[in-house]
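Lab channel / #folding
Pinned by the channel admin:
"Please post every new chain as: sequence first, then the structure tokens as a reply. Keep commentary short and put observations after the output so the thread stays searchable."

First post following the new format, from NK:
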Amino acid sequence: MRQRVTTVGIVMVVACAFVMFGQAHAKDEPYPVDLQSGETFDVCASGMVVCPARSPICDAPKIVTPVDLPGGLGFQGVAPGTTLCSAASAVGPRRVFRITVH
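Reply from TO:
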């Protein structure tokens, strides 16, 4: 009986580790966003960042630029292309977005 309890415990620990690794890996992937030129993505309304969001960064500001919205931070599509943008939260990690402008 004792060996069975030990085996079940080990299996549960390994299963939990796989679940936690899968969730951590999913959080590392950039969140995909599709926009039209002139359209704005509201970062705070998306729920992907705990607002107030701050310190926006975009790799290609000719494609997407950070903008201030009434509800907080946003990213606005400028020209067709794909780039990475990110925003920091006051109480959490920086979140990365893969933004495609059509």
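NK: The chain has two helices and seven strands.
TO: also worth noting, The mean pLDDT is 83.
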